[in-house]
Amino acid sequence: MKENRYEKGDLVKWYDYYRDEIVRDAGLGVVLHAKLHGPGTDYEFMSYMVYKFKTGNKQSFPSFDLEEIIPPVCES
User: What residues pair up with 39 in beta bridges, in sequence order?
Assistant: First the structure.
């Protein structure tokens, strides 16, 4: 499975799960920065610090707990 990559400023939908993978909470946010974990190993993955609009807090999420939101293009 290809890991999604996000950049600073990307609008995302985040998901917070219970241990059994049932969604506990979700909302919109913006990516503040990214961090690479385990570079050069079989366990390499990205995490993203996200400012959550719903709570005004920031939280780190792995890429598979995020979904990019692409704003609609306005035509004039």
Answer: none
Domain of 20 in residue numbering reads as 11-68
Among 64, 69, 28, 25, residue whose Cα is nearest residue 46: 64
Q: Does residue 50 contact residue 62 with C-beta atoms inside 8 Å?
A: no
- Per-residue model confidence as pLDDT tens digits over 24-59: 999 999 999 999 988 888 888 899 999 999 999 999
Strand partners, 11: 30
Q: Locate tokens 């570079």: which residue?
A: 39
The answer to whether the beta carbons of residues 4 and 63 sit under 8 Å apart is yes
User: Hey, what are 59's tokens?
Assistant: 């939280």
**Looking at the 3D structure of the chain, how many domains does it have?**
1
Q: What is the pLDDT of residue 3?
A: 66
What's the pTM value of the predicted model, to 2 decimals?
0.83
State which H helix or E strand residue 49 sits in: strand 45-52
